[in-house]
Specification:
single chain; 364 residues; alpha/beta; Rossmann fold; 2 domains; 16% strand; globular
Length: 364
Amino acid sequence: MLREIYEQPAALRRTLALYLNGNQLRGDVTERLAGWANPAGEVLITASGSSRHSGLAAEILLEDLCGLAVDVEYASEYSCRGGSDQRFPSVIVISQSGETSDTLAALCEVSQRGEKTLAITNADSSTMAQKAGVSMLLAAGVEKAIPATKSFTCQLAVLFLLALYEAQRLGRMDAATLAENIARLQAMPDAIEAQLDGWRDQMAALAHKYNSARTFLFLGRGIHYAIAREGALKLKEASYVHAEGYPAGELKHGPNALVSESVPLVVLATVDRALEASVVRYEKTVQLLREMKAQGAKVIALANAGDREVAELATDCVPVQPTTEYLLPITEVVPLQLFAYFMAMERGVDVDRPRNLSKAVVEN
């Protein structure tokens, strides 16, 4: 798992090379995606586990950047619902292996109804890649550890590129803005690489500090909620420590009753200062941090490097180099992956072979 966390910059570079020519989408990519979208602008995303969390991030990307109407479903639930969807949305299925049984069942069902399908997988010979109308591959390389790391960040990158394509196609993003976004995406591998060693040292220390916690609550707003969910899942599957991910604003609607010395918070408090909505979310999160400090809560916060306000309010603060709102999830998740890894080390767990889990769920 640790090796694959460190392989993420290289995996991202390989994946981006499949889709980009300089600061433009490759011509063969735009040809492949042409005609995929539902004319009414409706999209269904179905996936399981970490792949569903990347789908939650994609929901925000496609709605905010493209104006599409997006639903995200658990594949295990969607494939068992029966009935029919009269909207005939375009369907995105996401799976690292391309063989996840529940997601494959959902793909087969919507294909039989004649809905347009797009598969995002890490295996070009997988069943999903072959059966979907359009395939968007990852170049993460073989991922041996059961907890997904490099495949997850590559999924986020490809979904961001899909959103850019749709935004340009729909006339919601001009060529200059598209090129700027692609340039920022291409800068991500170097940015992650530069921060990895610092995150490794800090998250190892924090895992030692918090190794007696019995539950963690991970909090995020907007697109960062998806990363809160993913951070909680990583901790559960890697270290056997219970954790839950919530929208930050939901803490006071019940879960705050759990917060105590043995139930710390992990709060995503990064911000894109150039985006008004991001600033609004950030200010609400800062106010929540003030209230949690007054309450005596233990808080690990992820914040922009140099953010003194968050650092003063949190018990511990993990710096993340600033980027745009919609790319922050790609960097935010990496220190959370490291935290899960080192929590497993603290507890003597074989992190690459967690009990009761397999790399690909291929049986219902």
